[in-house]
Design brief:
Elements: E1 19-20, H1 22-51, H2 60-85, E2 87-88, E3 103-108, E4 111-118, E5 129-131, H3 135-140, E6 148-153, E7 156-165
Parallel strand pairs: 1-2, 4-5
Antiparallel strand pairs: 3-4, 3-7, 6-7
Helix pairs in contact: 1-2
Length: about 170
Amino acid sequence: MRVPIRKGGKFTHIKSDPYITQAKFDELSNKLARLKEDIQPELAKEVKRLALMGDFSENAAYQIAKGRLRSTNYKMDKIAKQIAEAKIIKTDQNTHAIQIGHQVSLECNKKIIKYRILGSSETNPTQGTISHQSPLGKLLLNKSVGDTIELKLDEQIVNYKIIKIN
């Protein structure tokens, strides 16, 4: 079977965002350790056991087990790379200008909204966590209390006033 040749596209070489909190770093480290110590050895044993059953081309259980092992190895490589490239967010006590790791209180349409600005791997806007690479996050970086920013959303301009930086 011939493998299709794919052209590199616009999103082929996008670098991942290295900024993570210490809690996320610890979570990734624990997950990698669990994969290395518990899951991967069990899958390797299963592949070895099923390999003894004979013909590889007709041994569906062997093919499935090998696919699971490959998938686990891929996850381990991905997590190890993320850990190696990680830059731990250390919240600066200087609250004169917004930086990654700060929590910000904004006034928008007479409502107070709070956001914490983190790396893109930890975002959850419904929980109040946005990425420093998001449109709002980019506008907020290096701004101070009292500054007003404008964000264009679907042909509509939304104004935010910075109330507090933690």
